[in-house]
Amino acid sequence: xxxxxxxxxxxxxxxxxxxxxxxxxxxxxxxxxxxxxxxxxxxxxxxxxxxxxxxxxxxxxxxxxxxxxxxxxxxxxxxxxxxxxxxxxxxxxxxxxxxxxxxxxxxxxxxxxxxxxxxxxxxxxxxxxxxxxxxxxxxxxxxxxxxxxxxxxxxxxxxxxxxxxxxxxxxxxxxxxxxxxxxxxxxxxxxxxxxxxxxxxxxxxxxxxxxxxxxxxxxxxxxxxxxxxxxxxxxxxxxxxxxxxx
Length: 246
Ligand code: MG
Fold this sequence. Notes:
Elements: E1 51-54, E2 62-64, E3 73-75, E4 78-80, E5 88-94, E6 97-104, E7 119-123, E8 127-131, E9 166-173, E10 176-178, E11 181-184, E12 187-192, E13 195-202, E14 222-226, E15 234-242
Antiparallel strand pairs: 1-15, 2-5, 3-4, 4-15, 5-14, 6-9, 6-15, 7-8, 7-14, 9-12, 10-11, 12-13
Bound molecules: magnesium ion.
């Protein structure tokens, strides 16, 4: 005989839901393996249900904006910006998600302000989370590491030393459009090295240098784009998990 499921069938319906409080019939959350944390020496293991964008071995899932294969260097489990080859974007496109990426600015400190360890992580290819060596490097606040470029500085500067691996964990909600009009903006929550630096922050529109730009209608999904800003910044362990309800 099948074992009776724990729960109730005589409790109130939860408002806005098809289920009762502690409903026996409510589906259980899928079981996943949560993976492992990274160390400075080695990238961790992504959760078992993650969609992998870069596994440390192959850059074949990435192209330059004109479609040619990504020319960035891959070695020792990371990819590195090959200056002057241009930005790269993932072939995979996705929308609302949890996204993880690790990066390191060059150990040898060169340049200052926006010229030191500059790159960027563009959600949907449009909205930049700044990557910069912001360790003892003064620049305008909304252009420092973990800023939403040109819009919001991070709540704190949680930067590690140049050459050390750092992480961004993003919760991303894509903007929604009705016709040409934006009806809900992009919303970002960001952890830098595990530290909350943006909480449910509503983006003003696409990010840009010295400009405020209005939203321009686009699809609910887009690629992840990484910036070639002329500095050999490294990336590893890039994955996302679409946000799906149960
Ligand atoms: Mg940048």
